[in-house]
Amino acid sequence: MSTKPFIMDHPLIKHKITLLRDKNTGSKEFRELINEIAMLMCYEATRDMPTKEVEIETPICIAKASVISGRKVAFVPILRAGLGMVDGMLELVPAAKIGHIGMYRDPATHEPVEYYCKLPADIQERDIIVLDPMLATGGSAIDAINQLKKHNCSTNIKFMCIIAAPEGLKALSDAHPEVQIYCGALDDHLNENKYIVPGLGDAGDRIFGTK
Ligand code: PRP
Ligand code: URA
Fold first, then answer.
1. How far is the CA of 203 from the centre of ligand 2 (A)?
2. Which tens digits make up the pLDDT trace of 41-84?
3. If you take atom 7 of ligand 2, which residue's CA is the nearest one?
């Protein structure tokens, strides 16, 4: 059985995604929004991090308090657009290591083509959050997670996107049922060019100003 996707319902995330969708939002503001949304989503995606009790000394007394424990974390953005989410994630988890998987969709077939993969040497020992603002057909996310599994990462992989299409959500859940998916918003459908409707257009182009 697959894990139920977590669709964000926080008003701040909804508001910021509305600004992202607006075609009049320029690259500078778009980049800022992507990072802010990633940071807010990171708060939810790290909710199950284990903690342990330690003893500290406050200016008043000795006290027991909680710190994060358990496995270390790696963020793996899918290039290019996933890069836009990394700084926001690092704001909350500065010690995380970053892996990169380069993938683009063939414009004719819409199938993902992998062109780069560089992961931290100790990736198998880390909990992983794969980052990509868009989950359209799901092909890129599925292949990126296949690649992680080829590197023997199989324990705790999460996938975080800002906008998902129902088609991509289903494909990813079917292919990797154990992967917890976090979405900022769930949209209506894919159009004939496999773009998300209503979506926000081409995330990579809007982040990097390439169109
Ligand atoms: C976009 C997006 C995802 C992919 C989603 O990347 O950032 O990686 O499409 O589509 P899918 O779910 O159908 O695979 P794109 O291929 O445009 O590459 P880019 O980030 O280099 O622009
Ligand atoms: N990639 C994007 O950047 N946007 C979409 O709507 C689909 C794939």
1. 6
2. 999 999 999 999 999 999 999 999 999 998 899 999 999 999 99
3. 195
